[in-house]
């Protein structure tokens, strides 16, 4: 691994030109501190031959200032396969870094905080999947990517919120076991007509939104267009104008340019999209994901400086988990 060199003068000015882009989301007083970390990270990326993949829920100083690739879980998995670098820094949560490692076993995958988890991934263990298989013999197991590699290893195929419908339909069966997000499973069942055996996991961010809140938003902000993530309870999705993955919500805004819009999802998502479309009004009744928020510019910088917090997966788990992810990626 190449040694880290100090900040070069030519790179120390990189952050200067960025502030105009993010100034509505980042207070001026905070910017000089971020700017130092941004310049250091740009140098480290070059020195380490590293790329930063960032999820849509990362804060604007990460998403807009240091990320090489941004997107939803599906895009990050697809992009991870194409990465031409020695090191991948995953600015997101642990299951995303594991997915990147599954698809890049020979690369170094770092996550700036190993404790960046997910309430869905925490809700289910491999032995739970084995028990479900016994209870429903022959029924295929579809596992949301928001799970550990050990749980993926017990499943037939993975899905994300962006391709859940296509994955389920690709199986051509009447019934599936879909784990661990109960609400995503119920939302997909309503969309596809396929009978779904669900688990009782929930996203601690999206489960907080209510149908009453959606009705209140419509009353308070006439004409508002309401987009919801499919991890929201089905009664919320039923009252929204559109439901889709974080990338699908961004695409909806890009194509339809609603003059007044709400994204019922994690807070940074609206911040990031609002930066791209300053002419649109974003109403922001969001909930923070404490796991996504464990990733900061400072710990991205530290991860690249120290090369610590490497993601490792037991090879006996990695092989079947990779099969389930690759099977998902083969679904168009
Ligand atoms: P997306 O795949 O839609 O980006 O969702 C990931 C996630 O963690 C949502 O809470
Ligand atoms: Fe997990 Fe929900 Fe956070 Fe996404 S927003 S990482 S599903 S807890």
Provide key terms for this protein.
332 residues; alpha/beta; Rossmann fold; 4-stranded parallel β-sheet; 16 helices; 14% strand; binds 1,3-dihydroxyacetonephosphate
Bound molecules: 1,3-dihydroxyacetonephosphate, iron/sulfur cluster
Following the backbone from N to C, one meets helices and strands in this order, namely HHEHEHEHEHHEHEHEHEHEHEHEHEHH
The overall pLDDT average reads 94
What's the overall geometry? globular
Cα-atom radius of gyration: 20 Å
| The CATH top-level class label of the largest domain | Alpha Beta
Cα distance spanning the termini? 37 Å
> How much β-strand is present in the residues?
5-15%
What share of residues is helical?
A: 40-55%
Largest sheet: 4 strands, parallel
How many H/I helices? 16
For the record, the count of structural domains works out to 3
Q: Name the strands of the widest sheet in spatial order.
A: 2-1-3-4
What is the CATH topology assignment of the largest domain?
Rossmann fold
Strand tally is: 12
- The CATH architecture assignment of the largest domain turns out to be 3-Layer(aba) Sandwich
CATH H-level name of the largest domain... which superfamily?
NadA-like
Low-confidence stretches: 1-12
Structural class: alpha/beta
Written overview of the protein:
Its EC number is 2.5.1.72. Its main location: cytoplasm. Its cofactor is [4Fe-4S] cluster. GO terms for molecular function: transferase activity. Pathway: Cofactor biosynthesis; NAD(+) biosynthesis; quinolinate from iminoaspartate: step 1/1. The protein is α/β, with parallel strands linked by helices. The protein has three domains: 123 residues, 3-Layer(aba) Sandwich (Rossmann fold); 83 residues, NadA-like (Rossmann fold, 3-Layer(aba) Sandwich), CATH 3.40.50.10800; 78 residues, NadA-like (Rossmann fold, 3-Layer(aba) Sandwich). The protein is built from 16 helices and twelve strands. It has a four-stranded parallel sheet, sandwiched between helices. The chain has a four-stranded parallel sheet with strand order 6-5-7-8, sandwiched between helices. β11, α14 and β12 form a beta-alpha-beta unit. α2 runs parallel beside α15 and α4 runs parallel beside α5. The longest helix has 18 residues. The relative contact order is 0.15. The N terminus is likely disordered.
